[in-house]
Design a protein that fits this description.
homodimer, 688 residues, alpha+beta, Methane Monooxygenase Hydroxylase, Chain G, domain 1, TIM Barrel, 4 domains, eight-stranded parallel sheet, 17 helices, globular
Chain lengths: 688, 688
């Protein structure tokens, strides 16, 4: 148990490596092109110098993954070291950290001190010669002979005569020896051949999953395909969806998300407003998946054919819109799986199949899969094949319905399986559940996650929650996707209704979240009537019936579509890299609880946005916002411009405290581009 | 890589287990008799009930360690679970966590809801019967047949007739079935036989090192044996040390710590005040270990014989004093190791041995061991044997000198080796170095550690530092030992001199630190003159010469020994369990930056102490201290007594805010026992 280690001379310690998730058990998430900053506590006993490096490689086929790239680390403060590298490619990377005692550097620094104190002796140079000879033995080619030559010079002092040979004697030819020993070229060449005999390696390799940029920066538009017909009463088709795409693209979205497109079960079908007694002609819920017409790999006949779906996907791609499909792993009683794979569902002693329930509520139209099935392995494979089927049709994003009601080991496996061959595919977890469960799903591989944002309205709770999401450790594995509404979530705040309310939630979602989404026409048309008081369900919800939306309602009217504001906000997001990440989010003090203020910046700090939102839809609110000018690198000794990207207004601000006033009837918030230097518009532009 | 796991049905997740150090890489520390509270995040997918347990065993010989004790965990909030157990024995323990889906409990809770809603059906009872039969198959003896009988009852509903057999039909004999199904005895017996087929185990076992109580609660007294002679000028002996022991015991200390007692090197011996040119008759530094008379296993001849040392240890034990020996792994040039094991030291190209240095400073009287020696394995064994030698002489505590200048892997190995056979032995790390290095040494096994306490004087820095030390994660592995002075550390604050200054530092050390120590006579006699301005070294330091101390200086005089105050403080520590731990430390608001206030409590909350110290040695300071009465379980609606254990004064306090005034010339601080209920002294005592 405590027998000696095989090598006891690994003197360097490596601890607290970041980024890491659960001590390296799960990969950290990044997107293509990101700079990855690795840090670790690295130190050794005593006073010797150390050196350290990050070794990084892509994971993948052997020929790719065998090659480790070594990046030297540099010390920060307090024994913390760092190195930075860029992950250019989508896929998985692995990195590890190495540290070792650097005897040459120890010698070099001590010698410099001794030279300064005029206390260098011959033996100091002999020690250096030994270290250089050792480096020469590790070196190759010209470097090796150059080093041997240099060592010979350092030994020459000893060989050339008596008065300089005593151990404490002063150096005979100090200038020459000192020049040779402190030559920067010597240092540079020795450093190429570090002595790693007793190097310490980090306890394990750490993984990174590098996703497409859209994992970090996306704007989602959810719409029900069956509600896309131009004329009321008709069942929408993929052709109608295709016709709707330019509208969505003009609003500035880059993901179009469709609820399930499969045949809908007939047994226990629900009527409008979730009525358990449906009538013939009722369309049912798209989440009651499967009928005699097919299951998870089939298309609802009324929507069209597979070819039409592919055409829709292709058209979307032309408009730079990704198509996200809803994956809901559950079956209507008439889903083909139920007959073909009855063991995938829980059998009851009376021979019936266990339907979903939350006692005493019963959902007889839904059979959950039984992840304790004896046949789980085959079931996993089949469920995986559902993803692969739709990937083959051009789908690149999956919005997974209630992943928290399926076994966790399944998700870790299936997402890794799919991303191994299709690393560009993204998964959004729709798990509105307890925080640790949501975080676990993200660790297991979900690329993005819904959040509690819909219910966070007050400044303190937005600040606290968004800070948690955007700081380590959470941000290393959990990517928030902020939705003000969904077909299941018409919040109490939205039920107030009106442009002010929807504008506030839009501005918050789109600027707090580099990833955000809206449940389409219901949002821009500011639908806000619940099915009943106290419910978050929409009245006449599209979940149970076809709706027809008047998207052309004019903006001039106070009840007109919010489309133009949405388009402007999305345009600002696309133009300003500051809004394309969440990790730079910082909240700032503003002396009014109804006003919230925060900045975001681009990685290179060239883009800096200050958002200020009036959380009160009813009254004008004003206050002084205080900015940490130092941190933001805004000079304190001159004015700077805050340019409102929503209105074009320009404010000349001075110092850290500046005045904000927002009348929600006119403008729910500012999205201010902060110009770090005063920009004066004259015939020509110049910067002071 | 992503092939299916062999078992995919382990649906329960176990995360974030505490106590743990670096995700379980190192043991957490406890002392004998402690309650250990294990916590973990435990949850599963969906809505099924789960159960969890901590399994704990002693590490040791196979027959002991094979037996795991299972302790059921209970849920707290937010998916956090806990279980508590007591570690009675000194040694190592291991624990792990198990969690599993509890189908019986899921069924039982759903049935209770259905019964309440009058919606229970026959099939619900049949499902229960199946689960009970499965439990019966896992059960033994009477339990098994009892369960089968109960299952038969639940099945009876189906067998007894037609109207109750349909899947949705209502229960025919509801009362009888309901009574059987919800019988608490049924629940209790099924729970004895949990279905752990798909149980999840924590990723690893977690270790605990259980030390003697003295690791958590100790008062150290350091003294130089050679300075213990009664008459000036004579070299002290172990007999003199033995004669000093009753004095130390009366002061209330329980550890007596001796600087090295070995022969002192003669080569490059240092004279008084670290003079490099020593004179014949100079005694030298005890840390320059080894001469022709022997090394680390020998005794300085002037101190006496091994038998006399053993007598000293025995006498100490009689007084309940542990003897702590200084272990300084370094050699004087004339240490026998240098000749016998020259490869354990770094050879220089000129044939000399590398002495210690911190360029341009040189310490020619000290040779460090070379932990990169080719012969490191034999050197490790020899160094280990030094500990074993002194353990054989009755030493139970080692104060290790500069452990941070020896290789980390050595410490992990040697401490584990020694504690395997001698688990009662303690190690104090004397590493006044960077924080991460100090923490690493503690993780590797040191039982206690010196701290930055000597240099923490202001309220904010004491609060910040002590909070860091006494909260997780640090407190799980690092046990502070707070010293106001050491032979190397006469702080700037102490150099002010006077009773006030020494009293302040004594009160802080002894009440902030359940472990604390003083460098003996120099402290109680308030020695405060540095060797020169700007130095933390004592003038005429005992490190380089023999001193003679007048311990009997009367307390009545302002320059008299601080002994009586020390004895009183140590007596209070011994009497009041609140002061015997650090984990309960909480700082409280007091509206004066020169006053610091904090409480400590015993585990069972029966002992509650509030300490308030005036950090200003010059002026009377006053302020209002605010106590969180709720947290402290002090009723807000009546008065409570604060009894000053130093003076016997009693204060009747009301509410959270109470007045404090401290004149340092009279009293540097209060040590107040808070009586949670008002104690009224009359002819008899009673509690309101």
């Amino acid at each position: 148990m405590t027998s000696q280690p095989s090598e006891g001379r690994n003197r360097v310690v490596i601890e607290s490596i970041t980024p890491s998730v659960d001590a390296g058990r799960y990969p950290a998430k990044r997107t293509a092109g990101d700079l990855v900053r690795v840090e670790a506590d690295i130190f050794t006993d005593g006073h010797d110098s150390i050196a350290a490096a990050v070794l990084v490689r892509r994971e993948g086929p052997d020929d790719v993954s065998a090659h480790w790239t070594e990046i030297p680390m540099a010390p920060l403060v307090n024994d913390r070291w760092t190195a930075t590298f860029r992950v250019a490619e989508i896929g998985r990377y692995a990195f590890k950290v190495q540290g070792w005692v650097d005897h040459f550097e120890t010698w070099r620094l001590a010698l410099l001190k001794r030279i300064k104190a005029e206390s260098d002796t011959l033996v100091d140079y002999l020690i250096g010669a030994e270290l250089i000879e050792q480096a020469a033995a590790r070196a190759t080619g010209a470097d090796s002979s150059w080093l041997l030559d240099r060592a010979t010079h350092l030994r020459a002092g000893k060989e050339s005569g008596s008065p300089r040979t005593g151990p404490g004697s002063r150096v005979g030819e100090p200038k020459n020896l000192r020049t040779h020993a402190t030559d920067p070229m010597l240092n540079e060449i020795v450093r190429r051949y570090p002595d790693k005999r007793y190097a310490t390696a980090s306890d394990r390799e750490y993984s990174l999953v590098v996703d497409p940029v859209r994992a970090r920066f996306s704007a989602w538009y959810e719409m029900f395909p069956r509600s896309t017909a131009a004329e009321p009463g008709r069942h929408g088709t993929f052709a109608d969806c295709e016709a709707r795409l330019p509208y969505i693209a003009e609003l500035g979205f880059n993901v179009v998300y469709l609820p399930p497109i499969h045949p809908i079960g007939r047994t226990f079908r629900k009527g409008p407003n979730n009525n358990p007694d449906s009538q013939p002609g009722d369309e049912g819920s798209p989440w009651a998946i499967g009928s005699a017409e097919g299951g998870h790999k089939s298309i609802h006949p009324a929507l069209g054919t597979l070819a039409e779906f592919r055409s829709f996907v292709a058209k979307a791609k032309d408009l730079d819109l990704s198509v996200a499909l809803d994956i809901a792993f559950q079956a209507a009683p008439d889903h083909p799986y139920v007959a073909e794979h009855s063991t995938w569902f829980k059998q009851r002693p009376d021979g019936t199949i266990q339907y979903a329930e939350n006692p005493p509520k019963k959902y007889q139209d839904i059979y959950p899969f039984d992840f304790e099935s004896e046949d789980w392995a085959a079931m996993w494979e089949e469920l995986k094949s559902v993803f692969l089927y739709w990937i083959a049709q051009g789908v690149t994003i999956f919005r997974v319905d209630n992943p928290h009601t399926k076994a966790f080991p399944f998700w870790e496996w299936v997402i890794a399986e799919i991303k191994r061959d299709h690393p560009h595919v993204l998964f959004l977890a729709e798990a509105f559940t307890r925080p640790k469960v949501m975080y676990r799903l993200a660790k297991l591989g979900f690329s993005q996650s819904y959040t509690y944002f819909p219910w966070r309205n007050a400044k303190w709770e937005l600040t606290q929650y968004l800070t948690e999401l955007t700081q380590p450790p959470v941000r290393e594995f959990f990517r928030a996707n902020q939705w003000p509404n969904t077909p299941d979530i018409l919040t109490e705040f939205l039920q107030i209704g009106g442009r002010e309310v929807f504008s506030i939630r839009l501005l918050l979602a789109a600027t707090l979240g580099a990833n955000y989404g809206i449940y389409g026409p219901a949002f821009e048309l500011m639908e806000h009537t619940p099915v009943r008081r106290g419910s978050e369900e929409y009245l006449d919800s599209e979940k149970y019936q076809i709706r027809n939306w008047d998207l052309a309602r004019p903006d001039s009217d106070r009840t007109g579509s919010l489309g133009p504001l949405i388009a402007r906000v999305n345009g600002i997001r696309a133009e300003h890299p500051a809004l394309q990440n969440d990790t730079s989010l910082r909240f700032h003090s503003i002396d009014n609880d109804q006003l919230i203020a925060y900045t975001k910046e681009s990685d290179d700090r060239s883009s800096l946005i200050l958002a200020v939102v009036n959380l009160d839809p009813h009254h004008t609110q004003a206050g002084m916002v205080t900015l940490p000018l130092d941190e933001l690198e805004i000079p304190a000794d001159r004015g700077f411009e805050a340019e409102d990207l929503l209105t074009g207004a320009r404010y000349l601000w001075h110092g850290p405290r500046n005045y904000i006033e927002l009348n929600p009837a006119k403008q729910a918030g500012h999205i201010l581009k902060l110009h770090r230097r005063l920009k004066i518009e004259t015939d020509f532009e110049y910067f002071l």
